[in-house]
Fold each of these.
Amino acid sequence: MASFLEKLKSGLSKTRRSFVDNIVQAVTGKARLDAAIVEELENTLIAADVGPEVTTALIEHLRERVALGKASSRDEVVATMKSFLQERLQMPMNGKTRADFFAPLAHPNVIMIVGVNGVGKTTTIAKIANQFRQRGKSVLVAAADTFRAAAADQLEIWAQRANVDIVRTKAGADPASVVFDAMKAAQTRAINIVIIDTAGRLHTKSNLMEELKKMVRVVDRVMPGAPHEVLLVLDANTGQNGLRQAEVFFKDVGVTGLVVTKLDGTAKGGILFAIQDKLKIPVRFIGVGEGIDDLQPFEAREFVEALFE
Ligand SMILES: Nc1nc2c(ncn2[C@@H]2O[C@H](COP(=O)(O)OP(=O)(O)OP(=O)(O)O)[C@@H](O)[C@H]2O)c(=O)[nH]1
Ligand SMILES: [Mg+2]
């Protein structure tokens, strides 16, 4: 079976071709970056969804390095781009390292997963739950997506696969009541980690954000200070639209981190740079497939290396 890194590398191959290779080719061997080259670079970067700010900054950086004679060979151009891109992806992890995420102090540690429909929330929960289990933590997942009749069934199948507890109710019930029951059950059973699955849309006219805010209030009432993490899931393929979605969630629900899914097979892997630049919030996980092991904590260095290989 292919390792996560291998999947990441092959998943990013379209992005590599449309983004990295074009730039390296356009810049290598040039004494200076003239207007025609700059335009070509701009088009490439915008198409790869890195966003206007990062596009301008990268071109400016390349222009300087080329003018200084420090980016003429292919290797030099690659090294210049790698260090620039890596730096752009370094985000303070809200003071939390990868190890901290998997060894939280709160009991239970409550993680809420939000995002529009179809981005990969439920699958992401299964994958994260599995990683906590592998580290010896007890996990309970809450099926608070009561919009789709099949949503709780889907989560239950994953819960069995990951060998974790689930709290669910009938479709159409108040999601906040599922959250309340899950919190109580977690306290009674002394569970380490609670992960809450939420809907990407609702059947009533009531507003999704209001519903999510209500869930946060319920969690906080049972356990002051919780949820400890609110992870917003974004589908890499949605590109700049994903950023607009994110802004809505940010305004209403206190998002603490991002999960970027479906990096396998997208040409829009450059979105990671736009996300970090715009949202200033750590990407905690990236997803490269539908299997339970196809999600890993995000590492800037690993991501950039994979992008170039
Ligand atoms: N290729 C690929 N597919 C993914 C990834 N993550 C999730 N998926 C697939 O995306 C589809 C939707 O995933 P779900 O987890 O059901 O998404 P959701 O956000 O819970 O959807 P709703 O509950 O309808 O809002 C499923 O077919 C998943 O297998 C990924 O990283 N790569
Ligand atoms: Mg779901």
Amino acid sequence: MEIEQTVLVQCPYCAECFEVLVECSIAHQEYIEDCEVCCRPVTIVVDVAEDGSVSTWTRSEDV
Ligand SMILES: [Zn+2]
């Protein structure tokens, strides 16, 4: 199992996809990363299952 994994997430502002690096040894994490396309802060939520599969989704901050 990889310790770090690159996953594609979709920006909630501009709908463009960009890659983020996920630390797979942490089961649940949330962090903010600037969108590579529109540069707005995107909250990225990551869940790593016991079998190592990674789920990610995104949230916009300024609602
Ligand atoms: Zn964007």
